[in-house]
Amino acid sequence: MTTIAFETTDLPIIGAPMAGGTTTPELTAAVARAGGFPFVAGGYLTAEALAPLVTRMRETIETFGVNLFAPNPVPIDRGAFDAFASALEPVAADRGVGVDPEPVEDDDHYDEKVDFLIDNPVPLVSMTFNIPTAEVVDRLHSVGTQVVATVTTAAEARTAAEREVDALIVQGPRAGGHSGTADPTRSIDDRATVDLVRDVLAEVDLPLAAGGGVDGVDAVDELLQAGASAVVVGTLLLLSDEAGTAATHRAALQSEDFNETQLTRAFTGRPARALVNDFVRKFDPIAVDAYPAVHHLTKTFRAHAKKNGDPQGLHLWAGTGYRSARTGSAETIVKELGGRFSRS
């Protein structure tokens, strides 16, 4: 079996690719210095914006990955979408924010970014939100790039294996931020990531990394013992010095005012785990399966909340292990998480 790039680092810790500016070049560099595996977060970027991040990563370390959002369009229930937009409009107006109720669709510049990575090969490319097509897998393989699919069920793992990906990232439902599920309309039941890892390994013979709800060294140990080659951490890095986490988000993660997380479609139209705030309480009951249309609909509202320090209107992504996130250098955090499992 081929050795996967994330299996070659000193520590079996992967810094999650947190899109939207949270995974900064400084954060990936810190993960690399610690001996972990860094990912460039390619989501929400054009190919032109991705290019300098890849160049900077190349200058930092040879072994790294790039993560992309694979398109997964879901037909919009226009009636439900319009009802959601109508409910949002007066709340936004109270804050002086306008809302455009016309649905906006896009594919996150996916084809252009794949073309860029064909022309400028990197060691590893991972996909989330959908399983990459066999054609895309073949194209990336043709330039020597390993391909990894994010999966959230054993069935998704089987599909990924059939398309000849090199490895998997198994994401449990307790992970913060967006679920990588290939079926964003499904109901996602709560379960431990280690149980999902065992289910996947019973179905496919592929190397895998795993993440979701990781709250410390014992969780890392449990996932490695279950058969994961590496453990993905994201929420535990949100308070690190190098993360691009907004000040309002940082404060909420440390506040006693926010004491639970929930999977919700309210912010983007796709299931994502966040701290429960007023926005979740008001809009989750009427949330619709319409990513990225809802993402675009709420974008200005959320940007206003971020700018004005309003945690009740912001998407406060967080996994269930968020209480274990701490301040300090990401290099130190990664070393303390993975040091006892060093491969060197």
Automatic annotation (TrEMBL):
Tagged with keyword Lipid metabolism: no
Statement: the UniProt record of this protein carries the keyword Glycoprotein: no
InterPro entries in the record: Aldolase_TIM, NMO
Gene3D superfamilies found in the cross-reference section: Aldolase class I (3.20.20.70)
Keyword terms of this UniProt record: Detoxification, Flavoprotein, FMN, Monooxygenase, Oxidoreductase
Signal sequence interval, chain numbering: none
Catalytic activity: 3 propionate 3-nitronate + 3 O2 + H2O = 3 3-oxopropanoate + 2 nitrate + nitrite + H2O2 + 3 H(+)
Superkingdom field: Bacteria
GO BP terms in the entry: response to toxic substance
Gene Ontology molecular function terms on file: nitronate monooxygenase activity
Cofactor requirement: FMN
UniProt family annotation: Belongs to the nitronate monooxygenase family. NMO class I subfamily.
Annotated protein name in UniProt: Propionate 3-nitronate monooxygenase
Organism of origin: Brevibacterium sandarakinum
